[in-house]
Sequence to fold (420 residues):
Amino acid sequence: MRTALKPLTVTELNRRIHDLLEVVGEVLVEGEVSDPKTYPSGHTYFTLKDAESQLSAVLFRGEASGLKFKLEHGLQVLARVRVTSYIKRGQLQIIVLSLEPKALGALQLAFEQLKAKLAAEGLFAPERKKPIPRFPERIGIVSSLQGAAIRDMLSILRRRFEGLHIRVLPVAVQGEGAKEQIAQAVRDFNEHFPDTDVLLVGRGGGSLEDLWAFNEEVVARAIAASRIPVISCVGHETDFTIADFAADLRAPTPSAAAELVVQEREALLERLSELGRRLSLGLKGLLKAREERLRSLCASPFLRDPRRLYEERAQRVDELTARLPSGLRHLVMRLSQRIERCGPERLKTAFSTRLSRVEGDLRRHVERLGALSPLAVLSRGYAIAAKLDGRVIRRARDVSGGERVRVRVHEGEFDAEVKP
Fold:
């Protein structure tokens, strides 16, 4: 005989399903992230799907804070999850314990995402870069006091040029709190030591994880906002960080940064000495050339007897003065001959032709003036009314009843009285 089943409440059934799913435990699953949404609580909800099905997923705040990269729609991931259900709705879901991007490592993906974001803001634009001073006197260093990098930088700076003012703000360069310390040190130099000529920000080599503090957004923004020129010097020559792109200049290593920022004292002194020798030789040559020129001028007969400068010109003036009367007579004679050759009749004809042209031009101008004259309008039946003092009346309210006015028509004018 069939035993009757005891009915369950919906909650009881959901709880049994929940307990069964919990037995599955942790599994690895790969898929595509779809529509991730982070709530004020810090928890992120999304769908993990493939070509044929999908699962609801939740990434709680604690696990989300450990992600180096941004969870984006369409990202292929490998997730370590716990299979469970949401009892209140009876909904199957997976709780994400850790995530790794499938195509790239998590750190590399985070690097590419932040680089693209800051580049789009113009943070790496060449026009934002500040020039590095050629002869800095006050040099700031943001680095760790442990390790060979700081010792190498200080040794090179002191060896290449004595008497430099070097200030070091020690910071942690990896691990928890490193990014905040580096960013704050850059800001402190700008706020408390604004007379610093150049800043060296960096550390020695290491793995991508070791160098990661220099790939953080807060460090990049602090470097980009610095009013003091910044040289980044992180890791080895093959290592590139976000700080390198934000800085005004990248040095491949900390030692190279120290060599870039300060010229070697002996080389600089040798260069100055060479320039001094060239300047001395140039001045000697210039003085010798001017001396020879002066001797040449002293030997000139014009300087020994200055009258020679104007004697020839004075004679030329006298010659032209003597030729002036005869030149005038010759000019008058030529004009007289031209008049005689023309004869009275030709002169009369030329004068008449010219007069006719002038009369024609005058008539045309008179006609144009007449067309523009306001009196021409009067010939078409219009009249001009004016007060007795000559002021033209333009509006009816300009006159009052009983007032006498003068009216001008095409031929003549007469007085009139305004009726009220």
User: Anything to note?
Assistant: The chain has four domains: 10-103, 111-263, 319-372, 384-417. The mean pLDDT is 83. Residues 111-263 form a domain with the Rossmann fold fold (CATH 3.40.50.261).
